Amino acid sequence: MANEAKDLKQWVFEALELGFRCIGDGDRTPFYLLIADGARHLVDLTSPDGTMSEAFLEGGRALIRQYARSGQYYVLVWDGYLTMQGKKEDAVFAEAGESDAPSGLLFAQRYKQTKSGKLSKIGKPATAAEVPHLWKRVVTKTGKTVTKKQSPRTKPKSKPKKPAS
């Protein structure tokens, strides 16, 4: 399990890097990565009107939940704001989980825009919070593993950015 956690963390850092590069290129479309049935999947989450909201991210979480029986890892990535000690900063977020973990984790990579217009990372990625696992699994008395449906969040853990008009 420790090796799997190390693999997940490496995968999260790769997802954060991809998100950072996409945002730097002007693409603020959220996406998710997952490994299910031994195959890797990358899915962009686009809305018809270009809006981004917590409800939209919850739709991405619902898509990820569909892989609960066969998934090994998932990472949902989006651009948002991280508030720490009263200071609001730009950040790329990655909500991640592995199949048998008791909870998911939310990671954040802070960044700023330089005078030249390029993005610059601030520090290293950090674990921002523990979040409900999207693939909560329960082992029954007979030893069978079943997927327990997770209820949607009631409060957003971060604030997604709205696209510029």
What features would you describe in this structure?
This protein is of the alpha+beta class. It has 2 helices and 9 strands. It has helices at 2-24, 54-65; strands at 31-36, 39-44, 71-84, 87-98, 104-113, 119-131, 137-139, 145-147, 159-160. Strands 1, 2, 3, 4, 5, 6 and 9 form a 7-stranded antiparallel sheet that branches. Strands 7-8 form a two-stranded antiparallel sheet. It is globular, with a radius of gyration of 16 Å.
* Biggest β-sheet description: 7 strands, antiparallel
User: Which stretches of 5+ consecutive residues score pLDDT under 50?
Assistant: 149-157
| Ends apart, CA distance between termini | 45 Å
Task: Estimate the strand proportion.
Answer: 35-45%
Choose one word for the global shape: globular
